[in-house]
Specification:
Length: 79
């Protein structure tokens, strides 16, 4: 089952969307949009770009003591 986008009103003023994982966990929330059509365009942009987006790690290096053995992040692949 794929995740889903939910389009909603933020306090009745702005439009926003959130991306939810199949288990219902919110994985992303959009910026505020002034109108519904712009929010829908934002959803289309995320759909187009998210699957091919590269990962840029901007985190500072962690001290050796704090680093746990983890699998490396997968490399980006062209689709």
């Amino acid at each position: 089952m794929a995740g889903k986008f939910e389009l909603f009103r933020d306090g009745g003023v702005s439009f926003r969307f959130r991306l939810k994982a199949p288990n219902g966990t919110v994985v992303a929330v959009s910026k505020q949009y002034s109108d519904k059509a712009s929010a829908v365009e934002g959803i289309h942009a995320v759909r187009e770009c998210a699957g091919t987006g590269l990962i840029t790690d901007l985190c500072p290096p962690m001290p050796r003591k704090a680093v746990k053995k983890q699998a490396p992040l997968p490399a980006a692949t062209a689709v």
